[in-house]
């Protein structure tokens, strides 16, 4: 049994400071195993106690993993100087002090973004050794051409001469301007630059899958959800690109069309 003070437990897992936690407890906003607890220095069992702050359950895991469906206009940064950061979209009850976006989406891109305070996991996710497959759906300015598939599979050479790893590509079923692409790496503006190299232009990009994690249909743009540690471990497993496209083509095409076309 790991005994810990209630305020320490909450402050390690949220953005609240110990003095804010004291105030919330005094106002009856904190519950321990279902009952209001007014003293924030109460000792609790960090492994089995159920703690709620303002009606939001605080997980026992030391780290938080949040899947955000990123909207346009937000930057993947922790520094406000870069613009409105994606961290602003995380409710304070589930945001922690050390959180950062694990990976990047451009300011005008949308879709699946993992936000965590687990530096080890983020490092593993981003290291070239472990690079996990990511699937994007793109809206193109001009119709998709079948010759792109072979070019992407051979490895696109970008305008500056940089070579990309082979990538898989498939046209979405119900539009000649929507396509899915799967990458195992993450160069700057990579998808946009790959389509530019074959003479097309990406008008809108949405990341729809990270490893075996698929952006849930019910998670609207701008919304986020907490993931369990076991979901995050699944990130490192891939999935069959063709199966993914045939299963999700209709859902994500409609999603992109309804929200942005
Ligand atoms: N590739 C891009 O060009 N932009 C993104 O946001 C992600 C991948």
UniProtKB/TrEMBL annotation:
Q: What class of enzyme is it?
A: isomerase
List, alphabetically, the SUPFAM superfamilies matched.
Answer: Alpha-L RNA-binding motif (SSF55174), Pseudouridine synthase (SSF55120)
- What are the alphabetically sorted keywords of the record? Isomerase, RNA-binding
**EC number(s) of the enzyme?**
5.4.99.-
Q: Which domain of life is it from?
A: Bacteria
Gene3D superfamilies assigned to the protein according to its UniProt record, in alphabetical order:
Alpha-L RNA-binding motif (3.30.70.1560), Pseudouridine synthase I, catalytic domain, N-terminal subdomain (3.30.70.580), RNA-binding S4 domain (3.10.290.10)
Regarding protein family, the annotation reads: Belongs to the pseudouridine synthase RsuA family.
The protein's matches in NCBIfam families, at most eight in alphabetical order, are given as:
pseudouridine synthase (TIGR00093)
Entry protein name: Pseudouridine synthase
- Organism of provenance: Ruminococcus flavefaciens
């Amino acid at each position: 049994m790991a005994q810990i003070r209630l305020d320490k437990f909450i402050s390690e897992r949220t953005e609240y400071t110990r003095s804010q936690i004291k105030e919330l407890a005094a106002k009856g906003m904190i519950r321990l195993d279902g009952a209001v607890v007014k003293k924030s220095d109460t000792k609790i069992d960090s492994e089995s106690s159920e703690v709620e702050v303002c009606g939001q359950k605080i997980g026992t895991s030391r780290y938080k993993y949040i899947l955000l469906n990123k909207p346009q206009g937000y930057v993947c940064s922790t520094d406000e100087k870069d613009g409105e950061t994606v961290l602003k979209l995380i409710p304070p009850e589930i945001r922690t002090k050390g959180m950062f976006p694990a990976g990047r989406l451009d300011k005008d891109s949308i879709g699946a973004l993992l936000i965590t305070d687990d530096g080890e996991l983020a490092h593993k996710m981003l290291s070239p050794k472990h690079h996990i497959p990511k699937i994007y759906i793109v809206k193109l300015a001009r119709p998709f051409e079948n010759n792109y598939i072979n070019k992407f599979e051979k490895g696109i050479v970008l305008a500056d001469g940089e070579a990309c790893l082979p990538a898989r590509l498939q046209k979405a079923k119900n539009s000649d301007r929507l396509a899915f692409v799967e990458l195992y790496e993450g160069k700057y503006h990579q998808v946009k630059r790959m389509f530019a190299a074959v003479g097309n232009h990406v008008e809108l990009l949405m990341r729809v899958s990270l490893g075996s994690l698929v952006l849930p249909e019910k998670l609207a743009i701008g919304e986020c959800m907490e993931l369990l540690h076991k979901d995050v471990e699944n990130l490192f497993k891939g999935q069959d690109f063709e199966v993914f496209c045939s299963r999700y083509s209709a859902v994500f095409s409609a999603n992109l069309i309804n929200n942005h076309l």
